[in-house]
# Entry
Amino acid sequence: MKKSDKSEYPVILAIESSCDDTSAAVISNGKVQSNIISSQLIHSQYGGVIPELASRAHLQAVGTTVRAALERAKINIQDIDAVAVTTSPGLAGSLIVGSHFAKGLAIRYGLPIIPINHIEGHLYSGCLEDDSLEFPFIALVASGGHTALFYTESYEKYTLLGSTIDDAAGEAFDKTAKLLGLGYPGGPEIDRLAKQGNPAKFIFPRSMMHDGTYNFSFSGFKTSIRYFIEREFPNGVPQEILPDICASAQEAVAEVLVAKTMRATKEKNADAIVVSGGVSANSRLREIFAEKASKTGTKLVIPRMSYCVDNAAMIGFAAARKLIEYGTEAFRDYTFCVSSSALRAERKH
Ligand code: KG4
Ligand code: ZN
# Structure
């Protein structure tokens, strides 16, 4: 691919390193030319992400991941128009590794650099997946680090409707799995076991489901699972009960996520729903969303998994929109810092 192939869309090299995935992507003509995701397996033995180890693993992976993204896209670094990088929210050390690498490239090749909010990447991944998706839509972002609902009016205007006040939905899955002696990350394991289980066998809390806000809470859910296991199975959970517990726990989390999203869609009069973040892989969540959305005639977009998990393609896509809107000269600041803190309710540029 040559630089002259591009139309109005610039060629962007994007880097994402906010948590435990090192990812690099090339976006050109608004299309994903490559999206390499290198996941850090080291954390599984600890049952959660260890920040210090994550930073070190990013340092080891970032160079080869960027090179692989360029090679897969069949593009030379000289043909890149801009570099994009995730700068918030996330683990500070992890964000610093990606940002530093991106700055080095941008300065070396005289390129503009676009700092991107990770959540914005998730938000617009629905547009990346489906270019017929129209605004306004409701976006649910549910992963190991965040659970939030947005009203999305345009590429530059979105409003945070609510978010978790404690644990994220993915964390609820991961912690439940840990209590059950399953591996990390726990979501896929729970999903797999739940397929053979009865979701109505046990009733776990649907916290804040009908509280009238768009916020979520999963810490009470996690505590109730812990008490349940201690009370019912003090000598350990028998293997044959696991599917029922997984199915019942999964049902509780999925129901709350769907109920709040559907209420937001109705109240905001939105025509479409986007579900993103690693938890969107959950098969029961997808099933309930599909059922509810078809009943209300609402368009449902759940991007392919490589755009749902932490990935650089969504960062590059968000950056492309900003470059088109503001032009390259708006992105010549090489002094920006990273921020680990979470969401801003509304963000411009
Ligand atoms: O977006 P992601 O890859 O990374 C971040 O946390 O940002 O999401 C990972 C989370 C983990 O908590 C994992 O357990 C959860 O997504 N997850 C799932 C499933 N696949 C991944 N949760 C429920 N069901 C799944 N099938
Ligand atoms: Zn994420």
User: Anything to note?
Assistant: The pocket of KG4 (ligand 1) is lined by residues 19, 143-145, 170, 173-174, 185-188, 191, 277-279, 281-282, 309-310 (CB under 6 Å).
